[in-house]
From TrEMBL:
CDD domains (UniProt xref): Radical_SAM, Twitch_MoaA
Top enzyme class: lyase
Lineage: superkingdom: Eukaryota
UniProt name for this protein: GTP 3',8-cyclase
E.C. number: 4.1.99.22
Ranges for domain Radical SAM core: 93-315
Source organism: Pleomassaria siparia CBS 279.74
Catalytic reaction annotation: GTP + AH2 + S-adenosyl-L-methionine = (8S)-3',8-cyclo-7,8-dihydroguanosine 5'-triphosphate + 5'-deoxyadenosine + L-methionine + A + H(+)
Keyword GTP-binding: yes
Cofactor(s) recorded in Swiss-Prot or TrEMBL: [4Fe-4S] cluster
Keywords: 4Fe-4S, GTP-binding, Iron, Iron-sulfur, Lyase, Metal-binding, Mitochondrion, Molybdenum cofactor biosynthesis, Nucleotide-binding, S-adenosyl-L-methionine
Amino acid sequence: MAPMVSIRPGPTAARNASRWATFRGSYTHRPPIRALYTQRGIATNCSLNEPSLDYPGPPGGSLPVPIEQRQSLQQRKEAIKNAKPFSEFLTDSFHRQHDYLRISITERCNLRCLYCMPEAEGVPLSPPAHLLTTPEIVYLSSLFVSQGVTKIRLTGGEPTVRRDVIPLMQSIGALRSKGLRELALTTNGISLHRKLDSMVEAGLTGVNLSLDTLDPFQFQIMTRRKGFEAVMKCIDRILEMKKLGAKLKLKVNCVVMRGLNERDIVPFVELGREKDIEVRFIEYMPFGGNKWSEGKMISFHEMLDIIRAKYPGLRGVPSHKNDTSKTFEVPGFVGKVGFITSMTNDFCGTCNRLRITGDGNLKVCLHGNDEVSLRDLLRKDNGGEPIDQEAFDRIKQIEMDRREGILGDETTLGWGERERELLDVIGVAVKKKLEKHADMDDLKSMTNRPMILIGG
């Protein structure tokens, strides 16, 4: 059983009431974080970046150090000195620390991609009451951030089709003061363009955009829908915002399938000749209903050979230890090229990712079929019914009344017994995470959800 949250001296009633008001306000009405606007009216998230700390002076100390900088340096030293160990609840038995959470906020999508959606039968969507509500998503986000998660990615389905996606992002973006550093989105880009400015204001720092071909006709074949022009317009918009100061990462994800889009590999690489884009080629992976076969899969090494036939200078570049992709560059090109090699060369040893599905299940491995429900435990105090804003306030008030208006500090967010149970369930699931996912021969015969119901 995972260890319990340590008990610290209880704060005063006023301090606790203030903390609860702050948390509750994080998913009720909150004015959007103000962004900087250029004269062209394009929002950036520059205001979300911490002030840079200038070097205090040359080694000889001839320049005076402003008192504000001295205080800031001292505060950082104190923070490092008092830093707590990473949460045991999010550390698995192989000492991997999971500080990256992916949350599927909808099962619906406006495309029907071949590798994601079964062609004939589609996918059985969960009843609305089975899906996480906004207060539930924000609470779970807050809980994971309190345990050390620094990056949250919203996925789907297609997250932009969720009606309240902007307020939801505002609420999660507000967790930046609690330790969240990145708020990212995985999207097909079809309807992103008109929401992008508001998302950047809410704290969006990265976009992974799914695009499998640069041929409009082939796009319609692979997605079973139109919309190529909208996606390209979205890419141009993001690049324009980046040029104007938006701190927004852009990665284009391309699933490569033999006989469909391998001829797009080189054109995708050339997309980065003058554009600041990282195109990541993904090995075709088996999921429920997508008719995977090894013959359709093009391996990482075969993709490298295709690119090097035209660009022999392609070379690897250093990457972060937790990166899912192997990064390369063509000398002289602005953009980068990445390869996600789940099938032929896994990266399980440095995996730091957890997933919450749209129906509230914690999934510790994309390719594993073990899941545990956080939704059912979260709703235990609400008779198993979805927790909307009113229900959340009522449950919280019961907890406050039980403590005579004073929120104890034995749990991170003051939820009491329910929060301890959630952390225990999360901790046990994380500890059961395997050292690596199954090999390719086993994966193709394993039962797993369709990708659209997992959250990519």
